[in-house]
Write a structure and sequence with these properties.
127 residues, 10 strands
Length: 127
C-alpha cells in the first residue's frame, strides 16, 4: 500500500511540473499598457518577474515601479505580504518576489510617472 501511495504521489508531482508555465498577464491602466511576465514557471520561494510599461506603443524607461503581493488572512493562517522595488534592465523593469506558499496571491503593481501621478494595477497570481 505504501508503494502505491508513493507511485501516486510521484505521478501527481510530475503532472504538476509538466503543467507549470511561465506567467504572462497583460493589462491597461489610464492609457498605459502593462505586461507582467516571467521567464520560468513560478515556484514557492523567490521568483524574478518582468514588467513592461508602454504608452501609445512607446516603452517607458522613466517611471518608478514597485510591486506588492499579499495573501489575505484565513482561518489558521496569518496575513502574508512581500514588496519589492523594480530595477530597470534593457527597457524591462525587474522585481524579485518571494511567494512563501502555494495558493492565490493578490498583487498591486504601482508605477509613478514623470507627472507624479501614481497608477495602480491590481491582479492575482495562482501558484
Amino acid at each position: 500500500m505504501k508503494s502505491l501511495f508513493k507511485i501516486f504521489a510521484a505521478i501527481l508531482l510530475t503532472v504538476g511540473f509538466l503543467n507549470a508555465e511561465p506567467i504572462s498577464q497583460d493589462g491597461q491602466k489610464d492609457g498605459y499598457d502593462i505586461k507582467l511576465s516571467s521567464q520560468k514557471s513560478l515556484i514557492v520561494g523567490t521568483n524574478a518577474l518582468d514588467i513592461e510599461i508602454s504608452k501609445d506603443g512607446v516603452v517607458l524607461n522613466d517611471v518608478k515601479v514597485k510591486m506588492k503581493i499579499f495573501m489575505p488572512e484565513m482561518p489558521g493562517m496569518p496575513y502574508m505580504e512581500y514588496e519589492d522595488k523594480a530595477t530597470l534592465e534593457n527597457g524591462v523593469y525587474k522585481v524579485n518576489i518571494n511567494f512563501s506558499m502555494s495558493g492565490t496571491w493578490q498583487y498591486h503593481l504601482k508605477f509613478k510617472t514623470k507627472d507624479d501621478a501614481v497608477h495602480t494595477v491590481k491582479g492575482s497570481i495562482n501558484l
